[in-house]
Amino acid sequence: MNLPNCPKCNSEYTYEDGTNYICPECAHEWNEEEQIESTEFVVKDANGNILSDGDTVSVIKDLKVKGSSQALKQGTKVKNIRLVDGDHNIDCKIDGFGAMQLKSEFVKKI
Ligand SMILES: [Zn+2]
């Protein structure tokens, strides 16, 4: 049985505990299903196109921005995106707003 490396610290000394895997080096615990999900980590835009780090996208609808009185306008170009795992799965910098996170369902690849 070949156990997967720890997804956090890449340790190979992981062991199995019931349905969980445990890393003795950083104490990270995860289960097999989460592991499969994270290896197939895919971010798609509003049209279902797969996005990659470094892509340029445009915003498909006006979006409210937390902590800003301005809204992010539909059609705003966002260069050099970085994909992250989470609810807001795009990390980016936008002129006039600075660093922020977007949801991939509100952008399209251009
Ligand atoms: Zn670890």
Number of strands: 11
The largest β sheet comes out as: 3 strands, antiparallel
The hetero compounds bound to this protein are:
zinc ion
pLDDT < 50 runs, ≥5 residues: none
Question: Separation of termini?
Answer: 44 Å
Integer-rounded radius of gyration: 18 Å
Q: What's the number of structural domains?
A: 2
Protein name: Protein YjdM
Pfam families: YjdM (PF03831), Zn_Ribbon_YjdM (PF08274)
Organism: Ureibacillus massiliensis 4400831 = CIP 108448 = CCUG 49529
Family: Belongs to the YjdM family.
Summarize the SSE layout with pairings:
Blueprint: E1 15-17, E2 20-22, E3 29-31, H1 32-39, E4 57-59, E5 63-64, E6 71-72, E7 77-78, E8 82-83, E9 90-94, E10 98-102, E11 107-109
Antiparallel strand pairs: 1-2, 2-3, 4-7, 4-11, 5-6, 8-9, 9-10
The protein binds zinc ion.
Domain Protein YjdM C-terminal: 43-109
Domain Protein YjdM N-terminal: 3-31
Protein name: Protein YjdM
